[in-house]
Structures are given as structure tokens and as C-alpha cells.
Amino acid sequence: MNLASQSGEAGASQLLFANFNQDVTSLAVGSKSGYKFFSLSSVDKLEQIYECTDTEDVCIVERLFSSSLVAIVSLKAPRKLKVCHFKKGTEICNYSYSNTILAVKLNRQRLIVCLEESLYIHNIRDMKVLHTIRETPPNPTGLCALSINNDNCYLAYPGSATIGEVQVFDTINLRAANMIPAHDSPLAALAFDASGTKLATASEKGTVIRVFSIPEGQKLFEFRRGVKRCVSICSLAFSMDGMFLSASSNTETVHIFKLETVKEKPQEEPTTWTGYFGKVLMASTSYLPSQVTEMFNQGRAFATVRLPFCGHKNICALATIQKIPRLLVGASDGYLYMYNLDPQEGGECTLMKQHQLDGSMETTNEILDSTSHDCPLVTQAYGAAVPKGPHVPSSPTALGKGRAEPGAEHRGSRSHRAARLPLALRGGACSTRPAVVSTVFKAS
After folding, report:
1. Prior bond to 215 cis, omega within 30?
2. What are the C-alpha distances in Å from 198 to residues 65, 222, 235, 281, 379?
């Protein structure tokens, strides 16, 4: 996520970008001085895995799971994408596009590059452009989401700039899968669960969060973040087991929702006055406007987090660290906040640590309550499947305004020159052969 403000500054922090990798085992941070990777295996200590100071003003840095493959974009060349093997210090390839790169998404099958009015779908193994979706509705924030599941490898992006339509695209078969009318207002956040079968959405209004089945588009859950004020949702994130959904915003509160279906109890005839009154009240809701009835049916937050700031851009994630469920929040104030989540009781989450991400590696805020909320979560039920070979249809189609085109019509020019490479990246020839990229996956 871009952590810089519109003026290009991120307050007192040097951070420009922060994002968790696909399984929330590491954190990538881009800054004015370069980029870093941190391991998320411990709460007490934030271990720095790697640091590069030769590429300045890094506004996008995305790592592929725990491999050495990393995609980098700098503010000094915002239309150029570099794909590197950071442990070897080599550049695999680079691509140039006709406009500023706003977002890059990775999984084991595909690499997605999002521009304001187009999306490029690359094959992760050889970095060839397989497909281009052109003339998408204006998307100045680069909002999009890519499923990390190999079998349900879907891409979601806004289908309209005026209402909350979601276009769902199958990146394996290279065809549109569905269009979901998710909200009345334009979209602000999107997130897939690890299985690629659920999609969470939020609009610019920020009061209601919905979860849809993928690819069918059926509404499964609806949660209300609040009714008092409209907010800007910064990020949505599922837990790896798909049981919880977190939502952070420009306010000081992070909401965590539990995705569980409440079983209806069999109807019994009331025997008391209060029972009769309750039955009449439930019956009266059928005469209320649909908007009011929906509010009665919307789920509330299972747990909440009170951040020590308000107004900072941030990104949240749910992870199991040292067998305990945690909520992680990386913010533009330059800190990573770690909270404990009680998966049975919920309630207010406990701040355990906050780690400084820029400058010195000092850690502040020791554990506030060492005895609270230390209950283990069920083992994460996520395993990476073996990638399957992509199937390319002869006539791809797309729904809505954004249309898809074959990779042969890719307008972004490709360059494999190693000129002006950062010092740490020199020494490796550029290549887009599958053998070169496959070595990245074997690296530890």
C-alpha cells in the first residue's frame, strides 16, 4: 500500500510503501532510501531479512511468498517495473508501460500490473504478457486484488468509477468470470480469501463491508463498521483460514469480523409477555424500509483494535505467530503494531509490541498484559498447490467496460538492458526464459 500523502510526504516517516506477502510471513517496506524485508515469525523481535539502499524512492515492492522474487517500482521511474532475484542481487527483467504503475500483484501463476485505465497479466514463469485488459474505468488508486490460490486464480477490479461494481476476471482461462454489483458508492477496498472463493468489498462510504462467493457473486455476509460517520477504508484482509476479516480505515479503530453462519433455532410459541412483544417486534420489521431492515441483519464487529493514531494511512493483516492469532497493522507513522486476538471471545485486542520500520531498529511498547488472550488458534488450513499450466482460449471475452486483448497487442515496451542498474543488482544478465525465473522458486 502506498503510505505517502498526496503531497508526496509521509509525515516524519521515510516510508513510501508497505505490504505483507501472500501468506503474511514477511513484510515488505519501501522508503526514500530503498527497501527492506522483515520476517514475521516472532512478536518480540522483528528480524530484518534483507535491505537494499541502492534503489531510492521505492514506491512499490512486492515479494512472492517466501521466495527471492521481488517486483520493484521507483518514483524516479514510475512507469518501469523491475523483477529481481534479491538474494543473488540480479535483475531478471524489466518492463516499461505507457503510464504510471499504480499497483503490482503476485501469485505463483500470475503477475498483475495495474495502470489507471488498463491491467496487464503476465505469466510468472517467463514474464510474458498473456493478456491486456484495456479501457477499464478510471482507477487512480490502482485498486485491485489477486487471489493467491492456484485453482481459483481470480483478479478483481472496479467495473465502474461511479458505483461499486466489481469485475471478476479468470487469469488462468483469460476470460471474464462475473460482474458483482457490490455497493451503491464507488469501491474503496477489495480482498480475496486464501482459497479464492470469497471476496470482501468496501465502498468509499465505508460503513458496510460485504463478502461474496466467487465466482458466483452471491452475497454471503454483510457487516456494519459503523453508522455515525463515513470513513475511508484503508485495507481489508482475511485470516488464512478464512474465519476472520479485518478492516482498517483512516480512524483509530480496526474492526475484526467473524465469518460464521448463525443457525436458526426452531420457532416456539411465546409463553410470556416479553416473548409476545419480541415476536411482534420481529414481525414489524417486514413493514420497515429495506435499508432499515438490512441494518437489523448486518453483523457487528467480533473484535476491535484501538490504534494510537488517527488519520495515518495503514495496512492490516491477520496471522498466526507463535501459535497465537495476531492482528498486524503497518502504518505511515513508521511503526508495525502487533495485537493479540482472542478467537473465542473477541472484544478489545491487546497491544503486544510495536516495532519501528524506518531508521533504527529499536522496539518500543513492551507487552502490556502477558497473561491476556494467549489462546492458540486452529491450525491454518492453507497449503500451496502445485501450479497448473495455463489454458489460453482462442477468443477471450470480457464483461463491462474493460475489455481483454491478447498479449501480442501489449503496448508497453519491453527492455532487457541492464544499463543504470543499481549497484546491488549488477552482475546478472536479464532474461525472460522460464528456466531463469524457475530458479527463484527454488531459492530459500
Report:
1. yes
2. 20, 13, 16, 33, 20
pLDDT in tens, 249-269: 999 999 999 998 755 545 555
How far is Cα 227 from Cα 320, in angstroms, rounded to an integer? 31
Evaluated on CA atoms 291, 295, 301, 305, the torsion sign reads positive
Separation of CA 137 from chain center: 20
Q: Which residues pair with 227 in a beta bridge?
A: none
Side-chain-facing half-sphere of 128: CA atoms under 13 Å: 10
Q: What is the 3-state secondary structure (H, E, C) of 49-100?
A: EEEECCCCCEEEEEECCCCCEEEEEECCEEEEEEEEECCCCEEEEEEECCCC
Instruction: Give 287's contacts (C-beta < 8 A, 6+ positions apart).
Output: none
Taking a C-beta distance cutoff of 8 angstroms, is the pair 61, 72 a contact? Answer: yes
Span 207-259, pLDDT tens digits: 999 999 999 999 999 999 866 567 899 999 999 999 999 999 999 999 999 99
Distance in angstroms (rounded) separating the CA atoms of residues 46 and 326:
14
What integer pLDDT is reported at residue 367 of this predicted model?
A: 41
What is the Cβ-side half-sphere exposure of residue 327, based on CA atoms within 13 angstroms? Answer: 34
Averaged over 327-346, what is the pLDDT? 97
Distance CA 42, CA 29 (A): 18
Nearest by Cα to 381 from 214, 195, 212, 148: 195
